[in-house]
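Protein modeling request. Please complete all fields; requests missing the sequence field cannot be processed.
Requester role: graduate student
Desired output: 3D structure, token encoding
Chains: 1
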Amino acid sequence: MDKPFLTRNLWIYFIAFWMAVAVIQFALSYGVYGQELITSITDSLISNIVFAVLGIGLWNMVRYSGKQVSGFLKNLAYHLASCALTILIWQVVSYSFLRLLFGNNDVFMNFLAEALVVKVLTGVLIYFLLISVDFLILSFEEMQEQAEHEASLSSMLREAELNMLRSQIRPHFLFNSLNSVSSLTLSNPQAAQDMIIKLSEFMRHSLTLGAETMNTLNDELYHAGLYLDIERVRFSDRMKIEKTIDPKCGEMMLPAMILQPLLENAVKHGVNTMLTTCIITLKAECNESYLGISISNTFDPDAVPRKGTGTGLSNVQKRMAAIYGRSDLLSSNTTDQTFEVKLHIPARKDS
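Delivered output (351 residues):
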């Protein structure tokens, strides 16, 4: 849909331009050529109002020529013809009004005849000034539309990438959970039933977050708690959770479902490697500038490393980079018996 001729600010400039032209014409007619005050004012007002109205019509003409007429010579011929028609209409309409009002004033009518050439030349100058400004406005609009289109495409691609990364989390976790349920059905049917119930609650809550990009830390901790409850059914006393959460951080924002794959990684490479109790520690601290989250797990350094696709940590890294435009927000550190992942999340208030 075509945009209006002028925005509010440009309307002000447009009116101011024609007022300035009208004042200059009045000053020349009254002060230089010695015409009467009333005839000078009327001539100036009628001439410039008529041309201003035609100038508004030139906007659509410029938009048409800019989109439909190609080639320099064709554009030049188009605007020369348009200029001639515009000047003709301007002079005929203006002269008709002035003749109707001052037809009996021979001095003024003779003045109009003598000033015709000057008015025509001035009209040509104003015409090309107007269409030059119109072309500038049109070019600026097109640049804005292109910038908005590119921003929209960038946003769509970014959102598509986020959706793809997030969609990989649920199948990845579901695959592991169903394998665990399968193994428990024979060894511990009650535990398998409990795990299915908790898995159902976890997936239900996951679906409520499906459309959200960001989430509060409190909601993320609840979601993470559902995941850990599922894993407790599987590992029982072999997994111990320690939490140190600053209450001030509860309403701070972070990417939705960002903690679960990190905890899943801790379970996979911690609990699964140990015959004794694995300690998983979750810490959160914050200030006005950032939210810091640390997830660490103990592991058996002598155990055979478990193979994996690397989906969890890789997805977290890519999602953080896609959302915040930075690749330094996730770091990891390994000591003799502890693996730690840290998230450094820039502060973002819930809107």
